[in-house]
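Supplementary Data S3. Sequence and structure tokens for construct A.
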Amino acid sequence: MTMPEQEQGNERISPTAWTIAHRRTVTDIPYSKAIFGEIEKLRELQGVDIPDQLKSPEIAPQIEARYKLVSRLLAQNRIEQVLEIAAGFSPRGLELTENRATYVEVDLPGIMTQKKKIVNSIGSNENLFLEEGNALDATSLQTATRHFDRSKPLGIIHEGLLRYLTFEQKATVARNIHKILSAFNGVWITPDITLKAVVQAENTATQQTTGIVGELIGVNIDKNSFEDVNHAQRFFEGLDFSVERHSFMEVIDELSSPAALHQTRQNVEALINAAYVFVMRTKEK
């Protein structure tokens, strides 16, 4: 889900949200196919068309790797309560609450209305909470934390948000998260470290440019990207976070989508080897 599409506040399926959900269907990520099936029902009812530029399953291994690496890092940090910002149609809340985790998803009203319909159709449980809110609004994020136990560590995550934000907006999100983590013994885990090399790998894999996609959604992804991983690390350290890097390559042997797409290991490495997840904590004062 992109911020410009979210800010419209309507309840129509957005093309970029559709394509991420579609890419997950060629993976073994739980609930992916069920969620996409419900999205398709909504899309057909709404008469929403998907531009050909967004129908690119070639980068599914990247989407799968970021999901699986974030999940692995949540487990390694023993996180049992999670706040997912700009959650869109992520299946992780449904998956983790099977194991009694407390999971809160936050997104803008239009998307959250759709997500509630989808979750209700699939079947939810009492530990999954769907809240309206905005990553750029500290108050709505703070309100969403009312579901959590402050004596337990909190994990804050998001996938695919920061590439759609300017550097000023990225800093606002970081400050909002810092404020929450200052009240919890928690960790911020995000794969949204969009580097120019990652964007180039996507362009090569899909044989198109992010500029084309950017025009469709009204965002300059190239301009919003970090020069390299050191640039990204300096940015977040400057906002009072410590940074621990994890390469997408850590989960390459867990990926199911390359076989489904008949991709070679070389193809997959070229797509994901420049991508990272950052595990961040507030710096000791």
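Construct B, processed identically:
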Amino acid sequence: MSHTSTQPASADLIDLDTTFLPVGEMRQISRVTGLTGAEIEGEVDLGPDHWVWEQHFPDDPIFPGTLMTEAAGQLIALWAWAQGQRGKPRLVRVNADFHSPVGKWVPSLVLKGEVRRKRHLNFGSVEIRSEETLVATVEAVLVVLA
């Protein structure tokens, strides 16, 4: 599955292809849908054809928590990008709580983050939802290396 947006480019608040996000299957964020001050919102497209279902517990497919954590880190990195930080983003600390499994029936994940910057560190708190269900919360610290 391609990780490019199915919406017109004008719907994206950040052109993901110009940022320092990973490419191919490692890019988790499909689009940024909100960016105001310390808040950022994004989406991860899933659906029944997502590449992960055939590889992660094929007889009982579930979206990996590691990829949700990666998506939260990418969302924080995109907030840093929007603030003018350029370089190599690195997660230096992560704490994640998983509340509900995500299976093939889930069309997308919505991530809502709040980020604050203190010197060279970006402290993010991200809620991940599937429709109205809270599936995970991630607290992370990200640094952008020059």
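The longest strand covers residues 133-145. The chain has one domain: 9-145.
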